[in-house]
Amino acid sequence: MRQQSGFLVVGIVLTLLLQWAAAGLGPAGIFVNLSVPLPAAYALLRGGPAIGAGVVALTTGALFALGEAAGATAYLLQFGLASLVLPALLRRGWSWDRAVVATLAVVVGVVALTVGGYAASRGLPVSELASQYVQGEVDRALAIYEAADLPEAQIQELTEVAQRMAELLLVAYPGLVVVVTGGLLFLMVLFLSAFARGRYVLAGPDFARWKASEVLVWPLIAAGFGVAFGDGLAGHVALNVLVVLLPIYFLQGLAIVTYFFRKKGISPALRAMGYVLIAILNPLPLIVTGLGVFDLWVDFRKPRIRNT
Fold first, then answer.
1. What does the alpha-carbon distance between residue 280 and residue 211 come to, in Å, rounded to a whole number?
2. What values do phi and psi take at 264, rounded to 5?
C-alpha cells in the first residue's frame, strides 16, 4: 500500500514538474514535453489502473486549481489519455505495436470529437481553428526571428518560408496530428521498455525484428500517385495518407538499422550517435525510409546462405 501511494505522489509531482519545465524552456521544452506522460504510465504499470488514473485525475485537478484550465485540458487530451490507455493495454498483454495503434485510434478520436464540439460551440469550422493555431505558431516563430537581430533580407526570406510552411501544414494537419501522437506513443513504449528492468514485461516483437503490415504498401503507392497527379480534395487526402505512412516505413527502416547495429556489435555510444545522425542529417531519413519500403521485397534481415 505504501509503495502504491509512493507511485501516486511521485507520479503527480513529476508530471507537474515536467510540464512547468517544458513551459519554462521555450522552444527547447518540446523535448521535455515528450516525457510528460511517462510518470502516469509507469505508475499504472507498476501500481495498477487505479494508481495511474489517480495520477492523471489529480494532476488535472491540480492544474485547474492553479488557474490553468487550458493547460489542464491540453494535458488531459495530449498526454493524460495516452498515459492511461497505452499502459493499460500493455498490462493486459497486448503486443506493443497493437497497443500503440489502438491507443492512437482512441486518442485521435477523442481529440477530434472534442475539437469538433468546441468548434461547433463557437460557430467555426475545424479548419478555421487549425488555421488560427498554425498562424499563431508562425507569428511566434517570426517574433523569434525579429528578436534575433537578423538582417532585413534574411528576415524577409524566413518570413516567406514560414508562410509557405504554414500553407503546407494546414493541408497536412490531420496527418501530422496522427504522426505526432503516434511518435509520442512509440517513445512511451521505448522509455517504458528501458525502465522495465524485470519489473514488468512488454509483449510484442523485438524492435530489431519489427515489420509493418505488408498491405500498407498499396495505400502508400496510391498516395504517392495521388500527390503527384491528384488535385483538390483528392490531392489533400493523398498527402495526408503519405504523411501518415512514410513515418511507419521510417520506423521499419530504423528497425533494420538496429538489427545490423546489433549484428555488428556496435557499441551503445556509437549506436546513439548513429540514430542522431539518421534523424537530422539529410538524406539519411529518406534512405532509411527507403530501406523500410523495399524491405517488403528484399527482406534485409533474412539470413543469407553463403556459397562456398
1. 23
2. -90, -5
